[in-house]
Amino acid sequence: MADNYIYLVSDTALGLAMVVDPTDAVVVERALRQKDLHLALILNTHHHHDHTAGNVKLQHDYGAPIIGPAKEGGRIDGLSRGVDDGAILTFSDLRGEVIETPGHTIGSISFYFPAIKALFCGDTLFSLGCGRLFEGSAVQMWNSLKRLRELPDDTMIYAGHEYTERNAPFALMLDKKNPALQERAEEVALLRKEGRPTLPVSIKTEKETNPFLRVDDPEFQKVLEKAGLPMDANPAAIFGSLRAAKDRFMA
Ligand code: ZN
Ligand code: FE
Question: For residues 224 and 112, what is the distance between their CA atoms, to the nearest angstrom?
Answer without folding.
Answer: 31
